[in-house]
What we know:
about 260 residues, 10 helices, 11 strands, about 35% helix, about 20% strand, binds iron/sulfur cluster
Amino acid sequence: MKVSECTSRKIISSCGLKDLNYQVDPYVGCEHYCYYCYALATAETDWSKEIQTHKNIVEQLSEEIDKIPPQTIYMGYHTDPYQPCEAEYRQTRKVLALFFEKGFSASILTKSDLVVRDVDILKEMKDAAVSVSVAFNDNSTRRLFEAETMDTEKRIEALRQLKEAGVRTGALVCPVIPYITDAIKLIDLLEPHTDVIWVYGLGINDPLGQNWLTIQKILRCHFPDLIEPIEAAVFSKEHIYWTRLRDNLVALKNDRQLNLNIHL
Length: 264
Ligand code: SF4
């Protein structure tokens, strides 16, 4: 994997998520290379070969956050802050250390257990939160859709360790791929280790877009019998698959009094 420097740009940007005003992407590009990733449409490099870092991330970000009041910053929107190169480049760790020094906090989304490395900083930050996203019940299926991510079990174990250390934890069951993802089983595994769970369906709107064409190729090769029902459900949120799943999740939420947010 080639790691180069990106063109000069602002590091902090606005964030549309509830209660979060700003986000930071410590890298440009993401080695995890999930074939359904919405950010692939704006990729600046071929993520299977090259991702980028910011030059002097600490100095520049320090100047940028000095202009805003201390608050929680989101990390994990266009790139995974704990993709494999973070083990060596430690951009995310440097950002967290800077946030902590300046009285900021972080809300992190990742698909990697490398986040546990930084538990020493996270547990000292006021209101830090870490969420992992999971979408597959078995790792051989996961590898078909997410080229370079970590096993589902390792992500859940990371949540366990973070929660035990006193860090707020959450999980996204995302993306639910109709007839492939068993969302209820994943919630069963996640529930003991999370304070909150969100469920999102596969969000593809363009049947001719690259995300869907790549997923179609995977389905044709590995799930030929499912391609038609999956396609029907992906492009219709009123499909019976979603109606049933929504009903089952609402029942589960009520039965177990779960902090479960259903976005299907
Ligand atoms: S981990 Fe997230 S940002 Fe990275 S490729 Fe996958 S979906 Fe995209």
